[in-house]
Amino acid sequence: MKRNGQKKDNIADRALYRLFIIFGVFIRSVSRSTSTSIAHFIGNFVYDILKTRRKLVEENLARTFPEKTSIEINTIARRVYCNQAENIIEMFRLPMMRSAEDVAQVLDVDARHIFAATIDCKKGGVLVSAHFGNWELMAICGGILLAPLTVVVKRLKNHEVDRQINAWRTMLGNRIIYKGRALREGLRTLQNGGILSILGDQSDPQGVFFMEFLGRRTPVFLGPAFLALKAGVPIFVAMCRRTGGGRFIVDIEKIDISGLSTAKTDVEELARRYTKVLESYIYRYPEEWFWLHNRWKRVES
Asked: Fewest beta carbons less than 10 Å away: which of 105, 109, 187, 204?
């Protein structure tokens, strides 16, 4: 029975992969404005008809922004779904991103102070971001404009889709590390002068460090803080957000690590500092964050 079930799963995975490839070819054959219209149709369909995690999204928004009316919450929630649909559609367009000129058509970023603190000093650095704006596009563009990045990613269940997305992520020199190997390989990357990119906004399933995040206590992943302090490298928050017309801007902020060591309390303090910066962007641009994730599912015991 198990073998038959695995066979059905494999057939379903291969079918999904073929649809994935065909849809990608179609999206790359149409204009960006057309693909954006398709994304908004999908986002509105999921919000209005499928209602996937809609209750969770609206409840989280209402708890985070108690001053907003239900109409305002619903408006933000709808934009969340449309933005996430845009992220998916834009992912299929990543193979079209080949040069600095291609990047300039969609993204504005000034990375000079990252250069000054890392590459110019021949040392590594940690970039912390969130599931905010278009994080995949930011990583690709960062690899083109800055230097090849080492990006920590989560393995997808569909291995063929996972392999294809990773091929796009690494097509211009970026490297990926799966989350389970992030500490060991990430530290080696930093010690060798590389730049490590980590999304630091999700819950740590094994974590014991809790702090306030968007008004509620939740576990926070300490990996970026530990790696930066252990390797003795600078740490930055980089947030990618939409500015309209299919364009994005990346805001970069260097986090102060002066006086901090690898002691547990210092690692936690650094995590508080960059998490507060992530939080500030989500408060200002709530429609850009991935509210579909059940961020507060774990409570302190």
From this structure: 105
